[in-house]
Each structure stands twice: as structure tokens, then as C-alpha cells.
Backbone:
């Protein structure tokens, strides 16, 4: 039976919980909540994990790296090596500044695009993992430092948009896990342009 690894990227700690950079954590926590999953700390994998079997029948491991964002690849690599999960069966959920807030896009190739968590994944894994990119852009004001923006909390209006779109993010993940990347990209990326 195949095993899928779904990693939500973010920074551990209460002070980061509502930041834009923790959109990946927020989405994967909501996915676990939707399916009634229980999180367990696994120090040997430097992650908090939950297990789930979606309708597709594959075993699905949900993970939140306990490392900081810049070292996300360490935890994902530990899990992938232990469970013998190839990059093609790994999904990374993370914030993306180049995508408008409220939108989502799925890709399987490309550079890190300035995202340190993705850069860490690329450094520790072979390319080919699926990227589930949650829009947090555009940066405003434009002159604001990038780090300050992504590590800042959503404004109340932004949080409202994020919360309203959460069901879309979760439905998209369920589709991705059930139907695979090609079908999910065809539906979500096309729908994304008309949101």
C-alpha cells in the first residue's frame, strides 16, 4: 500500500500561529480537524504527525515540522527516508507571496521562488514533490521588508478572506489526495483564475 506524506510548512510556537508564513500549518491543522485526526509529537522525526486513510485507500501521513521554516526539509527528509516515500508522493503546503490572498495553485516543478521552507525541501529532497501554494499576496505596502510581511499577522480583513477560503483549500487537498496531482491541477488551477 502506498504512503503519501503531506507536510504543512510553518514556524513552531504560539507567537507565529497567526502569521502569513504559517498558512501551511493553518491549512494542514484544518485538514486534520475536518477528518477527526489526532496530532502526536514524534521527536525522532522532528515533527508533529497524524495518520489518515483517505477514500483513495493510500495511507496518508500529515506532518508539521518542529524545526523552524528554514529547516523544514530536515523533518520531511527524515519521514520520507523512514517510510520510503518518494518525492512524487510528497505534498508540501505553504504560503506563496506571488499568489493573491484567497487563491491556491498546485505545481510540481520550479525553484524555491525566495521561499526558505521550499529551498530547504529542495536541498534535502529530490525535486518532484507537489507544491500546494496558498496565496498571501500581494505584499503591502510594497516597500515593506519581505521578512516583516511574511512574519506579520494577517490583518482582520485578510484573516476573514483566509477563513472564508479555508473550505476551498481543504476541498482542493481532498481532491488532490483522492484524484492525484494532474486532475487536481486541472480543476483547481483553472478555477483559481476565476475566483
Residues:
Amino acid at each position: 500500500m502506498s504512503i503519501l506524506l503531506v507536510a504543512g510548512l510553518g514556524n513552531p510556537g504560539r507567537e507565529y500561529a497567526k502569521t502569513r508564513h504559517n498558512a501551511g500549518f493553518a491549512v494542514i491543522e484544518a485538514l486534520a480537524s475536518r477528518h477527526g485526526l489526532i496530532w502526536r509529537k514524534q521527536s525522532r522525526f522532528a515533527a508533529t504527525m497524524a495518520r489518515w486513510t483517505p477514500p483513495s485507500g493510500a495511507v496518508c501521513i500529515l506532518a508539521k515540522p518542529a524545526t523552524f521554516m528554514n529547516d523544514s526539509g530536515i523533518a520531511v527528509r527524515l519521514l520520507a527516508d523512514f517510510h520510503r516515500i518518494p518525492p512524487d508522493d510528497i505534498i508540501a503546503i505553504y504560503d506563496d507571496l506571488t499568489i493573491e490572498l484567497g487563491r491556491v495553485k498546485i505545481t510540481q516543478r520550479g525553484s524555491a521562488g525566495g521561499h526558505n521552507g521550499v529551498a530547504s525541501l529542495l536541498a534535502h529532497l529530490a525535486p518532484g514533490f507537489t507544491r500546494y501554494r496558498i496565496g498571501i499576496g500581494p505584499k503591502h505596502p510594497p516597500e515593506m521588508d519581505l521578512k516583516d510581511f511574511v512574519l506579520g499577522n494577517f490583518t482582520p480583513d485578510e484573516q476573514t478572506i483566509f477563513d472564508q477560503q479555508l473550505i476551498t483549500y481543504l476541498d482542493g487537498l481532498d481532491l488532490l489526495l483522492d484524484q492525484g496531482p494532474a486532475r487536481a491541477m486541472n480543476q483547481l488551477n483553472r478555477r483559481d483564475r476565476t475566483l
In short: Strands lie at 3-8, 40-42, 47-52, 59-65, 90-100, 104-107, 130-137. The CA atoms of residues 103 and 139 lie 15 Å apart. The two ends are 36 Å apart (CA to CA).
